[in-house]
Amino acid sequence: MAKRSRKPPRSRYVARWLAIGAIVLVGLLYARPLRSYLDTKRDLAQKATEVQTLKAERRELQHRLAESSTGDALTRQARRLGLVRPGERLFIVKGISAWVHGKATIDRGGR
Q: For 73-83, how does the pLDDT look when each residue is reduced to its tens digit (9 = 90+)?
């Protein structure tokens, strides 16, 4: 009986290496677009978070604008700036913070 060679033909090895090479080539061709897709997806998530933060800030600013447009708020702001209504007198009192904390001394005009 003649011994049969159990070694597969050489063409099978070549076909396997070609298949492996093709798979590696396809993987390399998809690597850059896949990386670009994932980077873009990450950037999009960051931008969406930034948009949500800016929308919240906008709502807060709109609320503050609406609140500051009321007559009472305008009057308070005008008083802080030192403005008075016609016919009123402006008095500037110095040393209030020291007086509140109990450190004030009374100036009696040189006595």
A: 888 888 888 88
